[in-house]
């Protein structure tokens, strides 16, 4: 699993949001977020949770309010579907289908016993049942599954109680409590005249009994329209084979089937709703049948069909423009439409999945701006901004200089996050309000393995960091307004891993109470629930209820015993429990949990608090789904059970008293509950079935009849928010208006939460420790051992003043005044005069390599010193240096282009009147290695040294490593030189293999060498017509060598085993033949061997001179082979005697050459010897040349592109062969498949 960071926005509770929004396959380098798009799971309006309104128990609140709900039931799998994208404004309901694509979306069937909740506009009611497996990754809390276990179920498909047919397997696992419940049901049935009944009506979706998936959209906003899409997903085929579209115009009392309006043969797969206009509906067809979409502008009454030329994997609606949509295709292409899908145009290619975002009003320059991440390679990506309908290279912006890690871009509220890995460690960058990017400053030795951004509310970032010594826990860190400096808020918060690698953090933000969080912390291997009222500044345990459900006293003393709550939806939601709160009912929290020393999954009960966590009451001794009615004025509870039920429970006094009501005359297997959109829910629909094979049963319940009247002012009482008596929370005293427990009235749509706040004097509790400071046992903030308080004056590098920290900073959004404010607030002071210190020099990409002729951007940072009076000098190491008057003038970096390959010593010097500091960087400038050629003899003499040389193309590419396998040895020899000498000690065939490593490129060449003690050789020439047919490739030379050998054997009668022929590279075509002695005749007889070879040589040369060696290259092309008069290389001399005159002549040549060399090298010191036409004023380059081939001394890989400007004599003749240096393009990968020349 890769390393990295993930960003996930959690406003209501982190756990659920990580389930909802982080279901893109999360690896350790992937960033997830509230606004990331779910490409492989259910998403849309019902998926994208309203981040500012919270998530209720079994309910997801959504600011879009379209009521889309995904309900599904299968025999053990779900189908992959597109996702609406990454904003909380996207709306649709759909299931996930496994598609035959290679994208991250689309993929896996959920676990067989998975159970998800159904959601309405702003609410999803999750009915969980015991005995089931966990939820599928990426499925938000709005899916319900039903079982289709039966004869028609596919092999291996397990069933689970869910939305639809009942499950026999679950029925076989009925606990005793369920049996008791059945007896209670039977007792109730005998006295139905006396039981309390709810106004309800039932409608059966006739003809859809085989359908195992359903999606529901309830328009809301005073609309009575409900749309429901049911589908039959064939698990053997992996596709939808049937679908039905139903529409109700009377709040779900009756439904009309619309298959004829959309096309009888049309198979629908997904349902979307515009977040800004609920009357606009979009339906996607199954792309395996046809790729098209249907659009309605009248709440689904009529539709128009439009063809698509691409397959939509996800949609992202604009948060304000109702017709603007982004669509992500299966081929990594991003499309846009400004006509609600009627026309599409391509925006960009190679876009990373989930990594595209709409601009945010007030932060971005244009409303039609798109933030997106484009893929460059498996390890590199770019963050670019693009105009909606004019995304050209000229209009693209690049907010972050250099490459970022793939799948790391997150645009969330006013913050933008990216990740860049350097040296195997990630560096996290943040931009606030679209300003420049700055590294996120965690405590120095945090060393994160994994990082999630949990929340970006109220100008502050909350991050969960898994440090180097943690496995299943995370530490919570909070930032200041800029999102740069982080301090510890809570250690060892529990996490769990989802089925597809998603991480769920046990952190829950309470809706309606600013600054209130619940978290599960691991302490001494025990998981305990803690609560905070001031955004993590202080945490405490929960006080357990004083009595149980039956009134028995509970003996539970802090800190040894407390109440612990389940805060996340784990893989098994039946036993993990839920938690709920909402904006319209501040102080009311309903959750499942346990009492004791630690949190357990057994003996789970339901608890409620109506005073914001100060006191708790037990309301059920088993798990229930608790729903909010009438903006929290009433609560509805439905029991988790795999058995059919006909009752639910209602409370009008914040859960103190519960009344039992029947909602249907016949027991129903309940699969899910869909509430009317809006906070004032008074109508809901229960989805279920009466038997295993029955149709969907939709029971509409109208709660309006149980309320007596509208609430009036006298029905409300004031309620003071407090923490164990302390009323000053987040710097204010807050008084809310709540409904009296005895009032049985309807608050209605006009009700709004009323709060009166009064500021408090600031105390020490209103301040948290500043960056670099840690809270000690006495509560004081003192500097950490690694922190130098003087370093906080870093702003002096660009400004004249700085904030001198007191070690404290005010909690974000805390509204206290006066008190100790002045004592604890950082003071602005003039920057002190000091010498520069903490100078840093890096490249913008954080690398120590760059490509020849590319723009290299150097970044210079100064930690301490007066930046306005400190000059910066940068020496690039190639003879160029520049001086800047102050630090602020180089904030955007310094660009430079290198013209030669090598290792350059780059230095930066900061200097002012008080001192200076210098930092060095050794930069490798490289050129792409295109091809290599191993030059080696075809035949070598036994026990005589042979030179093996590698020729590079281009000749100089930077630092090169050569790896040799010589003489059939298994152990390689590694050199920095491109030539080695080797002696073959055994006769026979030896293989020499060389690999050349340059940068990220490794190329290989191999040669076969025949090793013999005695042989004769001679060059061959050919008739000129052969050159016209010579493509100069290794394979051609090998074939022609074989034909020449055959012709020579036929003309001379020489034994084929004694003759070797090789065609040499290049033109004109030349070859060489080798004669080997007959071992049977010459074994151990050197004299006879020489005579034998001379005889063979004369025989072959005679045949060549008589033009007896010929071959036909192709019809009409006859080639004659001749004996050449000169050899291209010295023939091998196998004799022991050497000519004395020849040796003398050779020695003379060496002496003369040495003299010329010495004169050349010392020519500057010899008076009167002037070889320069002009002297240059620039200093000599400081460059460490990389090892190159000894056969080529070209100074650069593009020598032919630069004219020689110096008259200085060269040691060798200039290389006139054109050498191309292919430079990597930031967006295009060049491929150059050059032939490798092989001697045969």
UniProtKB/TrEMBL annotation:
Residues 95-117, 175-195 have a biased composition (Basic and acidic residues). Pfam families: PKD, Sortilin-Vps10, Sortilin_C. Residues 95-195 are annotated as: Disordered. One of its GO terms (cellular component) is early endosome membrane. The chain crosses the membrane at residues 1142-1160. Residues 1-29 form the signal peptide. It is found in: Cell membrane; Cell projection, Dendrite; Cell projection, Dendritic spine; Cytoplasmic vesicle membrane. It is a single-pass type I membrane protein. The keyword Repeat applies. GO terms for biological process: post-Golgi vesicle-mediated transport. Residues 859-918 form the PKD domain. Its main location: membrane. Belongs to the VPS10-related sortilin family. SORCS subfamily. This is VPS10 domain-containing receptor SorCS2.
């Amino acid at each position: 699993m890769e390393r990295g960071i993930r960003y996930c926005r959690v406003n209501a509770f982190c756990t659920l949001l990580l389930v909802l929004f982080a279901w893109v396959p999360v690896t350790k380098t992937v960033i997830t977020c509230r606004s990331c798009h779910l490409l492989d799971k259910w998403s849309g309006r019902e998926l994208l949770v309203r981040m500012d309104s919270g998530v209720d128990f079994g309910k997801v609140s959504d600011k879009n309010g379209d009521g889309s709900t995904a309900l599904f039931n299968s025999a053990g799998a779900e189908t992959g579907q597109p996702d609406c994208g990454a904003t909380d404004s996207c709306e649709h309901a759909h299931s996930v289908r496994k598609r035959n694509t290679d994208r991250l979306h689309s993929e896996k069937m959920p676990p067989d016993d998975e159970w998800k909740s159904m959601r309405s506009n702003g609410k999803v009611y999750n009915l969980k049942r015991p005995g089931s497996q966990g939820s599928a990754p990426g499925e938000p809390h709005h899916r319900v599954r039903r079982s289709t276990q039966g004869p028609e179920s596919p092999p291996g498909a397990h069933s689970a109680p869910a939305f639809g047919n009942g499950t026999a397997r679950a029925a076989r696992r009925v606990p005793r409590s369920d049996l008791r419940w059945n007896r209670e049901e039977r007792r109730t049935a005998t006295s139905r005249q006396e039981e309390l009944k709810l106004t309800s009506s039932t409608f059966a979706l006739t003809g859809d009994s085989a359908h195992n998936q359903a999606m529901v959209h309830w328009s809301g906003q005073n609309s009575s329209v409900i749309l429901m899409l049911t589908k039959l997903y064939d698990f053997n085929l992996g596709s939808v084979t049937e679908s039905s579209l139903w529409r109700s115009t009377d709040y779900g009392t009756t439904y009309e089937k619309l298959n004829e309006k959309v096309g009888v043969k049309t198979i629908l797969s997904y349902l979307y709703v515009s977040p800004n206009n609920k009357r606009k509906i979009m339906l996607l067809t199954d792309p395996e049948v046809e790729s098209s979409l249907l659009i309605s502008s009248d709440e689904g009454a009529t539709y128009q069909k439009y063809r698509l030329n691409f397959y939509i994997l996800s949609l992202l609606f604009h948060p304000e423009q109702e017709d603007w949509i982004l669509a992500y295709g299966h081929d990594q292409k991003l499309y846009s439409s400004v006509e609600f899908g009627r026309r599409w145009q391509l925006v960009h290619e190679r876009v990373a999945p989930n990594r595209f975002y709409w601009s945010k009003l007030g932060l971005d320059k244009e409303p039609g701006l798109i933030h997106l991440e484009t893929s460059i390679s498996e390890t590199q990506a770019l963050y670019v901004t693009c105009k909606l309908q004019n995304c050209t290279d000229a209009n693209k912006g690049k907010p972050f200089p250099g490459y970022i890690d793939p799948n790391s871009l997150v645009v969330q509220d006013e913050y933008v996050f990216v990740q860049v890995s350097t040296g195997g460690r990630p560096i996290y960058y943040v931009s606030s309000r679209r300003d420049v990017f700055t590294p996120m400053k965690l405590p120095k030795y945090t060393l994160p393995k994994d990082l999630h951004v949990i929340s970006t509310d109220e100008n502050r970032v909350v991050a969960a960091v898994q440090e180097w010594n943690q496995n299943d826990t995370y530490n919570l860190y909070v930032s200041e307004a800029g999102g740069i400096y982080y301090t510890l808020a809570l250690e060892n918060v529990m996490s769990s891993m989802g089925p597809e690698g998603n991480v769920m953090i046990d952190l829950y933000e309470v809706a309606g109470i600013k600054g209130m969080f619940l978290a599960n912390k691991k302490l001494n291997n025990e998981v305990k629930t803690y609560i905070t009222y001031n955004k993590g500044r202080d945490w405490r345990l929960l006080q357990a209820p004083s009595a149980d459900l039956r009134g028995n006293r509970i003996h539970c003393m802090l800190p040894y015993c407390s109440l612990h709550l389940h805060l996340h939806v784990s893989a098994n939601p039946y036993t993990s429990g839920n938690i709920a709160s909402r904006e319209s009912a501040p102080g009311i929290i309903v959750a499942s949990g346990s009492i004791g020393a630690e949190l357990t999954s057994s003996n789970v009960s339901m608890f409620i608090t109506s005073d914001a966590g100060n006191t708790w009451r037990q309301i059920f001794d088993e798990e229930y789904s608790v729903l909010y009615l009438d903006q929290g004025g009433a609560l509805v509870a439905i029991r988790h059970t795999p058995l059919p039920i006909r009752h639910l429970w209602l409370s009008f006094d914040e859960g103190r008293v519960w009344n039992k009501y029947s909602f249907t005359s016949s027991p129903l297997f309940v699969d899910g509950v869909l509430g009317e959109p809006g906070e004032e829910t008074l109508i809901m629909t229960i989805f279920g079935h009466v038997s295993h094979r029955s149709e969907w049963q939709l029971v509409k319940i109208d709660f309006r009849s149980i309320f007596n009247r509208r609430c009036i002012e006298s029905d409300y009482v004031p309620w003071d928010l407090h923490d164990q008596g302390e009323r000053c929370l987040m710097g204010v005293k807050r008084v809310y208006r709540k409904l009296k427990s005895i009032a049985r009235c309807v608050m209605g749509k006009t009700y709004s939460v009323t709060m009166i706040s009064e500021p408090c004097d600031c105390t020490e509790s209103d301040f948290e420790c500043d960056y670099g400071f840690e809270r000690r046992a006495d509560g004081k903030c003192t500097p950490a051992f690694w922190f130098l308080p003087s370093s906080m004056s870093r702003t002096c590098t660009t400004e004249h003043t700085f904030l001198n920290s007191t070690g404290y900073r005010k909690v974000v959004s805390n509204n206290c005044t006066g008190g100790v404010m002045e004592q604890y607030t950082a003071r602005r002071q003039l920057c002190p005069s000091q010498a520069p210190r903490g100078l840093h020099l890096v490249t913008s990409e954080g690398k120590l390599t760059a490509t020849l002729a590319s723009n290299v951007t150097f970044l210079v940072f100064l930690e301490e010193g007066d930046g306005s009076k400190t000059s910066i000098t940068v020496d690039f190491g190639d003879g160029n240096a520049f001086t800047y008057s102050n630090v602020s003038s180089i904030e955007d970096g310094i660009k430079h282009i290198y013209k030669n390959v090598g290792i350059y010593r780059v230095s930066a010097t900061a200097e002012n009147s008080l001192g200076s500091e210098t930092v060095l960087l050794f930069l490798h400038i490289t050129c792409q290695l295109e091809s290599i050629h191993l030059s080696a003899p075809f035949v070598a003499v036994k026990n005589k040294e042979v030179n093996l040389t590698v020729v590079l193309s281009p000749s100089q590419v930077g630092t090169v490593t050569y790896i040799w396998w010589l003489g059939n040895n298994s152990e390689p020899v590694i050199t920095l030189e491109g030539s080695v000498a080797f002696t073959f000690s055994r006769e026979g065939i030896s293989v020499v293999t060389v690999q050349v490593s340059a940068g990220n490129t490794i190329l290989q060449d191999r040669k076969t060498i025949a090793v013999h003690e005695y042989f004769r050789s001679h060059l061959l020439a050919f008739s000129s017509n052969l050159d016209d047919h010579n493509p100069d490739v290794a394979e051609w030379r090998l074939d022609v060598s074989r034909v020449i050998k055959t012709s020579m054997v036929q003309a001379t009668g020489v034994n084929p085993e004694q003759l070797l022929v090789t065609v040499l590279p290049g033109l004109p075509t030349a070859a060489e033949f080798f004669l080997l002695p007959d071992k049977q005749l010459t074994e151990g007889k050197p004299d006879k061997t020489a005579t034998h070879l001379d005889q063979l040589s004369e025989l072959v040369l005679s045949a060549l001179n008589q033009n007896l060696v010929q071959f036909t290259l192709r019809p009409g092309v006859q080639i004659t082979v001749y004996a050449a008069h000169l050899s291209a290389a010295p023939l091998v001399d196998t004799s022991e005697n050497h000519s004395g005159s020849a040796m003398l002549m050779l020695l003379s040549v060496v002496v003369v050459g040495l003299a010329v060399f010495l004169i050349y090298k010392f020519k500057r010191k010899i008076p009167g010897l002037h070889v320069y036409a002009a002297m240059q004023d620039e200093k000599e380059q400081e460059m460490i040349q990389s090892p190159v081939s000894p056969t080529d001394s070209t100074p650069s890989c593009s020598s032919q592109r630069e004219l020689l400007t110096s008259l200085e004599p060269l040691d060798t003749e200039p290389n006139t062969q054109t050498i191309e240096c292919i430079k990597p393009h930031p967006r295009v990968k060049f491929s150059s498949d050059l032939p490798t020349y092989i001697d045969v």
